């Protein structure tokens, strides 16, 4: 019996995916995503509807901005400096994003357009300031609370690209243009990296990839580390989800149901049986509170795994 295919690059002990990249490389991924989102929002009707139930375009932008009293990047940095999280207590490291969103919207949903756009620019400045400082090396590997439990600070910072990408698509009904390939690719990178982080935290040895014309990303995880990398093409045999980046992001965020997209071949699965290596995450992740972003993406990915486990002929 042959060994299952491995990612072309395996993590070294202590590696933490994107959080272990050089800060300049993370900046090259995240800051252009912010720039494209800010350019896109400039033409959006903030009072227009969005794809998020009950949210206007303004609500989405308020949710993504940096506000007094909100959980800004500087506040997360202070949390990382305290370094008080119990790494064994997944639920103790959980941040209740839904309640936080409700409080921020209660306080700032009526803010005028100029103030909303400035809050978005401030969030971008905070990310740039963090990535051009020595802080990623000092606190970037320390864990902070997230909707998915404790994760490294720089993993959470990079995860912002996923929110920007999904919400850029959510703004189309309000006049938003199509997001750039760079923004969509950054969103996929954040999704793949976070899945790798969760796999390592669960003590799994696993790998998987997303393949799209906008960018292809894979992770390889061991019980002590994970690596995340961009690939020009995905090696044969690696568990892979393939499709246009917008389709992959929509399916992951629950904006569109995956089964019809699979039936129309908008999404294609390769070597799905090997996704079973991620099955233990089904027990770890459900029940964690979180908003309609990375938490939902992981939940939907695990729902696919549940379906795969019931397919005839696959190992149980």
Describe the structure.
The protein has 316 residues and is of the alpha+beta class. It has one domain: dinb family like domain (Four Helix Bundle (Hemerythrin (Met), subunit A)), CATH 1.20.120.450. 46% of the residues lie in helices and 9% in strands. The chain has 12 helices and 7 strands. The protein has helices spanning 23-41, 57-64, 73-82, 97-108, 113-131, 135-139, 153-170, 181-201, 245-252, 258-263, 281-284, 294-309, and strands at 143-144, 151-152, 206-211, 217-222, 225-230, 240-243, 267-270. The strands form 2 sheets. It has a 5-stranded mixed sheet. A two-stranded antiparallel sheet has the order 1-2. It is globular. Residues 286-295 and 307-316 have low confidence and may be disordered.
Could you give the topology of this structure?
Elements lengths: L22 H19 L15 H8 L8 H10 L14 H12 L4 H19 L3 H5 L3 E2 L6 E2 H18 L10 H21 L4 E6 L5 E6 L2 E6 L9 E4 L1 H8 L5 H6 L3 E4 L10 H4 L9 H16 L7
Helix pairs in contact: 1-5, 1-7, 1-8, 2-5, 7-8, 8-9
């Amino acid at each position: 019996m042959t060994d299952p295919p491995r990612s072309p690059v395996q993590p070294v002990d202590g590696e933490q995916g994107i959080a272990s990249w050089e800060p300049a490389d993370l900046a090259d991924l995240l800051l252009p995503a912010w720039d494209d989102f800010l350019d896109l929002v400039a033409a959006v009707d903030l009072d227009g509807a969005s794809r998020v139930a009950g949210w206007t375009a303004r609500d989405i932008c308020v949710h993504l901005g940096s506000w007094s009293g909100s959980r800004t990047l500087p506040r997360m940095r202070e949390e990382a400096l305290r370094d008080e999280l119990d790494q064994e207590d997944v639920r103790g490291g959980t941040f209740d994003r839904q309640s936080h969103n409700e409080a921020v919207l209660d306080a700032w949903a009526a803010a005028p357009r100029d103030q909303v756009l400035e809050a978005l620019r401030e969030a971008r400045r905070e990310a740039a300031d963090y990535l051009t400082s020595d802080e990623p090396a000092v606190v970037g590997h320390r864990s902070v609370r997230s909707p998915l439990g404790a994760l490294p600070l720089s993993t959470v910072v990079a995860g912002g690209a996923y929110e920007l990408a999904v919400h850029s698509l959510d703004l189309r009904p309000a006049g938003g243009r199509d997001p750039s390939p760079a923004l969509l690719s950054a969103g996929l990178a954040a999704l793949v990296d976070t899945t790798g982080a969760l796999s390592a935290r669960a003590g799994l040895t696993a790998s998987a990839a997303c393949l799209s014309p906008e960018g292809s990303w894979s992770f390889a995880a061991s019980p002590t580390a994970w690596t995340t990398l961009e690939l020009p093409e995905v090696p044969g045999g690696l568990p892979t989800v393939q499709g246009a980046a917008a389709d992959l992001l929509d399916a992951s965020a629950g904006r569109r149901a995956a089964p019809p997209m699979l039936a129309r071949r908008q999404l294609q699965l390769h070597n799905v049986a090997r996704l079973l290596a991620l099955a233990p995450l089904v027990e770890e992740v459900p029940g964690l509170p979180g908003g309609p972003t990375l938490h939902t993406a992981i939940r939907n990915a695990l729902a696919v795994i549940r379906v795969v486990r019931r397919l005839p002929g696959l190992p149980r």
